[in-house]
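Lecture notes, unit on protein representations.

Consider one protein chain, 526 amino acids long.
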Amino acid sequence: MAALPPDVLQQLVCQSPGMMAHPGLPAIWVALVLGAMLAVVVWLFRQPRRAGQPAGGPSLAAWPIVGPWLRQAVRRPGLLVGLRLFTAAVFLLVIYAGLFGTPFPARNVATVLTWSLWWTGLIISVYFVGSAWCAICPWDALATWLVRRRLWGRGPATVSLNLRVPRAIRNVWPAWWMFIALTWLELGLGITASPYLTAILALVILVLATLSLAVFERKAFCRYFCSVGRTLGVYSQLAPIALRPIDPAICARCRTLECYHGTDTVEPCPTHLVMGRLRENTYCTSCGACSQSCPEQNVAWSTRPTGEEAMHTARPSWDGAWFILGLVALTSFHGLTMLPFWEPWMRSLGRLIGDSGQLLGSFTIGMAGSLAVPAALFALAVWATWRSLGRAWPYRRLFAQLALAGLPLAFAYHLAHNVNHLVREGQGAGSVLRNPLGIGAQPLSEAEMQLRHLQPLLHQEVLFALQAGLLIFGFWLAVRILRQRLLRIAGEGNLHTRHLIPMLLFIVAVTLFNLWLLMQPMIMRM
């Protein structure tokens, strides 16, 4: 692997002695992103103001060779059960390694696998397989096996109280609060640097999933409480693939709705969905219940244009809009906390307010501010758009509609940030997998940390190209979603430049801030 240029090598040492930092995005790539953003803005203002139509693609079940195999794969539970057994085994290894392995995070499979490999791989997978991770999630698998006491098939109704979730929390607010709490624990308490705390957190979530399954009907934890599942569900609105009917006419004729009610041997849909009426991926966990229960074998993976759902068919909601804003804010906040000057900021704030120890009070204030600023800017942009439209739509409804434009901004930076950690910190993952408990291992030396920078998993320029390309992709898709949503609101021929400008400024501001974050040297987590 080629060595880094001298100017980049100088960035490897942070302001804090002994800490190593990832180099930031070079000026040439920054200029490329800015040029692409300008081109997208020009395209937006020159493009005819006509609303597009949903354009679903063909079902993969119709493909030659792949199609017949896919029909059988989604119909039979064997493959799914095998994958769930595998992920459950890996999950138990993470728990064991975290509780009884080495405390050095870079030498323990619990922290390396969870924070460097799994979380990044999970976000990457959304684009290619939607919410398919939820189908093999070890939390849900272990909770189901513990409560239902069987590996597959429909369990007896008597093993759960089957209570309805209270109406007040039958939304994504619980997942939103869980997302904020997990971020606070991850960054405020430094869970990413503690194998033991990583294992404890994983066990706590398993207990919550199990209790929810034992108390509430179906899988309330997956639909309402799990922030990981809701993140994947929201992001999968951008994915070019989704579980859908092969022939919609068959679903239109169906009166028995096995996909919703289940059968004697197959569980009902865990999140209360009817396949024939499904228009968005948000709550689909790709669990296979509908494909296994459908008597016509009419369910399979289908393709569609990228972002099609967010542009046309997604049904915005007030709580869903706030979840998207949480993603926009907290993905950027992760980057902010890893900059060299974040810790000095927190110490200065701690001295100002009398905070000490782990500076949790200062961190909480910083996190609250990072959530409040993007939300306030978005609310202001929506208000300006609402005024320019003559207040024809209710403000809350417009707020929910336009929040979808923030989705690709969060997704693009989320990937750009995490890919950086994966490529640089994943370099030593092979040795950790060979010695998952880190028996006899010593902490990373400064020479080893520098070697990881000099020999990342991808060439330095390839990584920079990926990061720049992701930001361009996110900006382009956000602008397209904004345009389509406003065309649906204002109507063809009635959409003017003044309607686009407030939200366009918000999209530009978020993208420029994320670009600035990628330009900064970023401290290694482990």
